[in-house]
Amino acid sequence: MTPLEQSPPPALDLAASPALSGAIHGFMGRAGGASAGRYATFNLARWVGDDPAAVAENWRRWRAAYPRLTVATVAQIHGAAVHRVGRDWNDRRPEGDGMVTAEPGIALGVFTADCAPILLADPAHRVIGALHAGWRGTLANIAGAGVRAMVELGARPASIRAAIGPAIGLCCFEVDADLAERFIREIDGAAACARPGRPGKAYLDLRALNRRLLERAGLDPQAIDEVGPCTRCARDRYFSRRAAAGAATGLQLSFLALHE
Ligand SMILES: [Zn+2]
Questions:
Q1: Main-chain phi, psi angles of 185, to 5 degrees
Q2: 85, 128, 140, 200: most buried by Cβ count inside 10 Å?
């Protein structure tokens, strides 16, 4: 073999969770793509100002890795609407922040850059869900809405397993103290997910808040995993809105699909 033949195809930077070992899934990082500058390198979002040719090349690489999957996404608006995805989904991209399906071969994909991507699977009843939870979606309880939508497709909360992917951490997610107070009022147990900051400010643990909401929706605490670092701290590996400090940035894809 020549050295060229020995070298593997460019690998996607994927973080996985043992909680979702029964489903095809990954929390992608930003390495391995064709985009440049602030979108470097694996940006799959067409609407953030990146070069369309680079985004198309990134999608080509993704599809080369997952030739049997079709991808469903939504136009994310920081709400709590969860859509049911079937074979007739095609290229719809309705507004919403979550999707569920019982159809194998459909990858549910959410885009983030600091917000929390949440992937859910009930392997016993073969139902999956993917959610995007920023602070607004967390307050709106997208986590609970996602679990309810899965239950409507036949899942049981006690058999749902969850992984919350790379997101801004308690170390970096500074918000106004008023907002932190709102979380503490509205989400049972949220006080343990916040700590004081500078005067008038506080820090929130977005992933811990969503863990609380998933537990409140009936998931076994042991079945909820957290994957990957704080996106702002790990800005070389993950896109981070806060690290970009107001400039445009790419978005990373998190996805999961049921095996055929
Ligand atoms: Zn951090």
A1: -70, -40
A2: 128
> Ligand 1 center to residue 243 CA distance, Å?
10
Rounded Cα distance, 214 and 143, in Å: 6
Residue 228 alpha carbon to ligand 1 centre in Å = 11
CATH topology of domain 8-168+206-257: CNF1/YfiH-like putative cysteine hydrolases (3.60.140)
> How far, in Å, is the centroid of ligand 1 from the Cα of 183?
20
**pLDDT digits over 23-67, tens only?**
999 999 999 999 999 999 999 999 999 999 999 999 999 999 999
How many angstroms does the Cα of residue 231 sit away from the middle of ligand 1? 7
Tokens 């997101």 label which residue? 167
pLDDT recorded at residue 10: 59
Burial class (CB in 10 A: 0-12, 13-18, 19+), 196: exposed
